[in-house]
Amino acid sequence: MTGISDIPQELIVMIADYLSRKDRHRLASTCRNHYQALISRLWKELYIESDFPHFWSKQHQIAPVKPIITSRRVEQHAPYVHLLRLHGPFQQEYYALKFPRLHTLIFLHDFSFHTPCNGAERFDSTLDIPMWHDVHINNANLIRLNPTIKNLQIDLGRPNPIPSASFWEAISTTLHNPSRLCVSGFCPASSNTLNSFWKACNIFEELDIKVDLNTTELLSQLDFPRLRRIALNVVPGWGGLKFDIQEQLAWLRRCHNLTKLDWKLTSHRLPKEFMEALEQRTWPHLEDLSLGDFHDSVDIRTLSSRLPSLRRFRLRSDQFQLRSDQVYALSFTAFQKQLFGKIRVLDMAHSFGFTSRMSLGVLEECVHLNEFKTFVIDAEDIDLESRPWVCLNLKRLEALIKVESDESHEDAFDALSRLTHLEHLDSGLDKLTVSEIEKHLPGENNYLQWSLDSGLDRLSTLTKLRTIGFADTDQEMTEEELEWMFDSWPLLEEVKGEFSGDDGYHSALVDMLHERHISHV
Amino acid sequence: MTVILVSSDNQDFKVDKEVAERSILIKNMLEDVGESDSPIPLPNVTAAVLTKVIEYCEHHRNDPVQVPEETDDPRKRSNDIEEWDMKFMQVDQEMLFEIILAANYLDIKPLLDVGCKTVANIIKGKTPEEIRKAFNIVNDFTPEEEAQIKKENEWAEDR
């Protein structure tokens, strides 16, 4: 009789690729044939936690977590490993392993790990100092053994030991084909270490830096020719910001090949030199721009008239405001002209000056839009006859939807029903803080009601919907709505929000979700 | 234009060329053979299975040729089987695997995908013992091996 044991191993792999990681492991553990078939999938990504004692403080013990994977076992499967994450400092032998196909290495350190002290119930923190010193030497050795690494991620909790110059040198000198470097959580101190750090950064195509940094003279001599994408978030340290905004900008201006810039200004003003840089077409290949945490009332007209034609644009600032109503029309036109041509991802969710009319303007004009996050849409402003929505490729929409009447409810659902490729729809209020709500949405507001009475059934066209959200918007949904959703949205996998003010009723509906393996947040 | 397909148990099936060519194997064979009318033998597929396969190809005869979808999400989903296909796959396990093997041999990718998704859906959420029971799998691990793998599974779940 033909059964699962008759099908060739490559088909087992094909089936397993439709399973979650957990289910894949379970399938692999049914018999030797399946284990062999899936061995490359099982060991492709390896996440190991150290067996060193794991205590946060002498008062808060965490039971030591033993490694489930010994170094011997890792070594046996090293040829399959493409991604390795090491959580904590490890025994020496782990750092002597070679992984011929390793492309991603992640070091995750935090101070909850301590040197093993045999027999003692509590850790001895004086022994930790040499341990932390050794960690980066060990890390450097591991890197030297694995030149195939393309992506390197180093996450350190503060306060923490600083990777020395030789660690950074190992990176600069070993990697054959460096792609991405992600560092967070530490503050290089000596200029020697910093120079090595900058030299290491210089070899990558992508940098993701969230560090309390200083700059050195060497930085102004390095060209960063390979750098295409950067996420820069210089965190102020004890003494404030050592690598100040102007110096950051000066560096960025020398990286001419950037296609992606994600710059967090940690509550500083957006320098006017940035506008100048845009005007001078400093980054001619820029496609993806994200500016965050800046403290300024940015003149959108100036900014947008200088933007290159972007595919993704994200602006996040409390202070983003228009100067005056008169400027509004001109500003928005400039915005339109520069951005609407190619834009695929637009995130204005925390730009409270971006009005409902502007949001609708986006929906009415941006044909290529895939993702749109904005602050609010007022259903009263929707007019599908004269201004239909053209963003028919939209896959993700997040916006508060204010609705005052039955008619505007119909309009809202009607408009949404056109977005047949939508996979994620979130009209919840949970993304805003209490103070933001008080400031920007004062008084009583009525939001889109996800109910069949209001016109929810028009969304039966959204057959690709996978996640939905309506948190904090006073819904009163029933079993009927849920049954309808299960029928109409077969791909639904996550729901975010309260179904009803009545806790008991809400729990009952959540149970209905869980029965169908739909998660609730 | 019609072609004749012959199952392993010597049954003839007269099928439109367009339908038969949903199988890339048959399509290639027809291109090689050219104008000839001779029947195509399929020694790996019995009549019962071939009937089902032809039924699938008939229903999907006008489907566009599958192009690999460009998605940002590499995770493959098994919960998007269309209703007709779902009913089509409501067969006993033996037939299910026969269809998968036939789709693999005949190179009919959409049918192979549906078959794999169907099996994946049976596996989802089950413990190893439940999976063994569902498919009559014999556990050939030693107790030590099994314990080791179970430990490693826990690591996988802790991600």
TrEMBL record, chain A:
Pfam families: F-box-like (PF12937). Transmembrane segments: none annotated. Residues 1-46 form the F-box domain. This is F-box domain-containing protein. The lineage of its organism: Eukaryota, Fungi, Fungi incertae sedis, Mucoromycota, Mortierellomycotina.
TrEMBL record, chain B:
SUPFAM superfamilies: POZ domain (SSF54695), Skp1 dimerisation domain-like (SSF81382). InterPro entries: SKP1, SKP1-like, SKP1-like_dim_sf, SKP1/BTB/POZ_sf, Skp1_comp_dimer, Skp1_comp_POZ. The keyword Magnesium does not apply. One of its GO terms (biological process) is ubiquitin-dependent protein catabolic process. Pathway: Protein modification; protein ubiquitination. Pfam families: Skp1, Skp1_POZ. It comes from the Eukaryota. Residues 109-156 form the SKP1 component dimerisation domain. Residues 2-62 form the SKP1 component POZ domain. Belongs to the SKP1 family. Essential component of the SCF (SKP1-CUL1-F-box protein) E3 ubiquitin ligase complexes, which mediate the ubiquitination and subsequent proteasomal degradation of target proteins. Component of the SCF (SKP1-CUL1-F-box protein) E3 ubiquitin ligase complexes. This is E3 ubiquitin ligase complex SCF subunit.
